[in-house]
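Suppose a colleague, Dr. K., hands you the sequence of a protein chain of 452 amino acids and asks what its three-dimensional shape might be. Before reaching for any lab equipment, you can write down a predicted structure in C-alpha cell form. Begin with the sequence itself:
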Amino acid sequence: MSTLLIKDASYIVTMDESQPLLRDASIFIRDGQIEAIGEGLWTQADEVVAAKGRIVYPGLVNTHHHLYQVLTRNLPRVQRMELFDWLKILYRLWRGIDGEMVYTAAQVGLGELVRYGCTTSADHHYVFPPGQGDLIDRQIEAAQTLGIRFHATRGGMSLGESAGGLPPDDLVQSSAVILKDSQRLIETYHDPAPLAMTRVALAPCSPFSVTADLLRESAALARAYGVRLHTHLAETKDEERFCLATTGRRPLDYMEEVGWLGEDVWYAHGIYLNDDELQRMAFTGTGVAHCPVSNMKLSSGVVRLPKMLKQGVPVGLAVDGSASNDGSDLLAEIRTAYLLHRLQYGGEAPTAEEILALATRGSARLLGRDDIGVLAIGKAGDLFIVSTDRLEMAGTLEDPVTIPAVVGINRPVDMTVVNGRVIYRDGVFAAMDEQGVARRAEKMAHRLLRQI
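The predicted structure, expressed as C-alpha cells, is then:
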C-alpha cells in the first residue's frame, strides 16, 4: 500500500457540485484513491506534501489528441491552410513515421500535458505506414513510463484517394487489418476496472477517410467488448459537402445510419451541427470534444457551446493534434475557450466555472469515467497544484475556482499527481529526461521534414 497526504492546502477546488471549494483543507490518498478530504487530517502518510499557500485542482482530462503530430509542428508551409488542404500536405510527411518516432512524440506530447496539469489523456492515432509495427503499443508504453492515465484509440483509414477518399492510398489499411488489430489492442490493454490506467477505444478516422462498412463493423466490435467509439465529425464545411456529395446525408445523419449515436460515442469538434442534430446528440448522450485552439488555427469555426450545454449535450475539452495546435497545454485551452465564447456569445457564454468543468468532470464523462475529474472521497488521486505566491496570482484569490479560465495559469504547475503518485514536481519529471527527449524529438522532426 502507498499513501500520500496533500496537507493544509490554502484552497482545494474540488469540482464536486456539493462543495466546489474547500479552504485550509487536506487530501489523503491511499493506493491511488482519495480516502479522506477536508479539514484537520493529521494522519501519517508515506509522503506528505506541504500545501499551505497553494491551490489544488482536479487533474485535467484531455479527450482528443494526435500525439504523433508533435514532429510536424510550426510548419510555415501550412500555417494559412484549412483542414483538407492542410491534411493533403501533411499526409506526405506522416507516411514517414515509425515506432521510435511515435514513442518519442508521445513522450513529448504527454509530458507537455502533465506539465500543465493534465492527468488523463486520450489519443486518436490513425496513421499506420506499412511495415512500421504496432504503433499504438509504443504510445501505451510511453504513457505507462511517464505515469499518466491513457485512453488509446485505434484509428485507421480505409478509404483512399483512388476510391474517393482524402488520404493517399499507401496510408490506407483494409477493414480486416484494422478490425483485427483493434481486437488485439482491446484484449491486450483495455482495463475496465475503476482507477484503470489504460483503456482502449475504437476510432476510424473520419467520414472522408473510412468506409461505411468499417464504421458499422467497428461499432459492432466495440459494443461486443464494451469499449467506446470516437471519430472526427462536423469539423468543417468541406466535410459537410463531402458527406452530402458521397452519401446524400449530412455528417450526423450518416453516422446515425451506421450506428454511431449513443452514450458510448464521442466526436471531436462538432462545429456544424444544427438544432435538430444537437437535440439528437443530447437525447442519445452522444458527446463532443471541444478543441478551440485547433478550430481557430485552421479557421474551422466556433462550436455552438452555449446551445450544446443548454440542451444537455455531453461536452469535454481537448487540445487536438499538435500540428493543428502546436502545443499540448490544456490549461491554455481552458482560457481560450472561455474568451472565445465570451467574444462570440456574450452573456450567453458559459461561465468560467463551467469551462473548468468541461476540462474535468465533463471530459471524464466523455471517456466513460466516473472515477476522475472530481476531488472527492472514492475518486482517483489525480490532481495538480499551483502556488499562490506567483506574481500573476496577486489579486486573483477572491475566487480560485475561476482562475484557470479568467486569469489563466500561464506557466507550468508546481506539481502533478496521478493515481496518488507525484509524476512531475518543480519542473522535473519523475520518470523522463526532458532534455534528452526534446533533443531526440528535434532530430526526428528534422529527418521527417526533409523526406519530401
